[in-house]
Amino acid sequence: MSGSPAAAPGTGFVAPAYGVRSLGDVVPAVATAVGTSPASTGLVLPEAASYVVFLVDGLGARLLERYAHAAPYLSSLLGARPPGTAGVPSTTATSLTSLGTALAPGGHGIVGFTSRVPGTDRLLNALQWSKDVDPHEWQPNKTAFQTLRSLGTTVTVVNKREFQGTGLTEAAQRGAEYVGADRVGERIAAAVAASAEPRSLTYLYDGDLDWTGHRYGISSSQWLQQLSMIDAEAEQLREALPRSVRLLVLADHGMIDSPTESRIDIDEHPETSSLRDGLALLGGEARFRHLYCHRGAVDGVAATWREVLGERATVLTREEAIGRGWFGPVSPAVLPRLGDVIVASHGDFAVISTANFPYEATLVGLHGSLTPDEMLIPLLVD
Known about the structure:
The chain is α/β, with parallel strands linked by helices. It has helices at 26-33, 61-66, 72-76, 92-101, 105-108, 135-138, 144-150, 167-173, 184-195, 208-216, 221-240, 298-309, 318-323, 372-375, and strands at 6-8, 13-15, 50-56, 84-85, 114-116, 123-125, 154-159, 177-180, 200-206, 245-250, 256-257, 263-265, 279-285, 288-293, 313-317, 341-345, 350-352, 365-366, 376-377, 379-381. The protein folds into 2 domains: 6-257 and 371-381, Alkaline Phosphatase, subunit A, CATH 3.40.720.10; 260-366, Gyrase A, domain 2, CATH 3.30.1360.180. It is built from 14 helices and 20 strands. The longest helix is centred in the middle third of the chain and has 20 residues, at 221-240. It is globular and about 60 Å long. This is Alkaline phosphatase family protein. InterPro entries: Alkaline_phosphatase_core_sf, Phosphodiest/P_Trfase. It comes from Nocardioides panacihumi.
């Protein structure tokens, strides 16, 4: 377990607050608040008949503070409690699974946007999934939603119809009743109906802010307009809920804008040609790379990446990253999914591969690393 959100010495990174104020602590805290189970986490939430947990993809705490004028309702709730943290890496698939399982990434095994399928030369894309990877085998732990259901709590997921039954939904959220709702009005109505059940947890998701940030950047007018729409959605949801039901608004991660001049494409520049040496497979994402190495090449790969990237990133071996507590306790099955070498970006730096991940090169906003803008998430209760 880690303490409350704190900067890691010498990096400007924020350590994940597992067991205290991380995404994995939210569902156990709600269970205690609605009287289902005794406290099992350091996160304490106000008691209530029921909870609606509204997760806004990409709404980092720093971003909400910075652009408070565009979100008057949500920003009015800032300051009541300190921010929480995402896990590592600060990316959607990892975060949503931590929320749904109440486990750190090293326990649930969704360790990034892409990660190696052990024993193969293939990557699992945790958002798109692969039909030949069973999500129940990849993530075999009982989810927190299943645990709450077994204790008599009504648990409902309200999300787009296209996400029902997907690999990530099965890995992270199985055990809940799924209500498909594609439009804001549908989602609010579904959440209000589900939360009428006593001692219930209703989970509501909106991914539009994250999409807008990736496409246009967090400093764009498009992102600010989308933030205003999210703010209105949250306020409308609060007004539609009875006062006996608490609304908890949080995020899975924040985001930074990474300009072209702050990126390295390992496939296009002479400076980076050595970064392919000893590398069997490149995984993760632009802000947090998993490097899977040929046998005996780990030390050489780590040394080369440290030399080429310098102060633009922290480069650690798998054992060093685990030793820093980045992933929490790591189970044996999860160990080979982590890169032999881990690369976490500083500032607005990003490692692009146009050969392996051409789509990432088109994105403006990115996330995945341990900077405050990416790691700190709001925990807003009304």
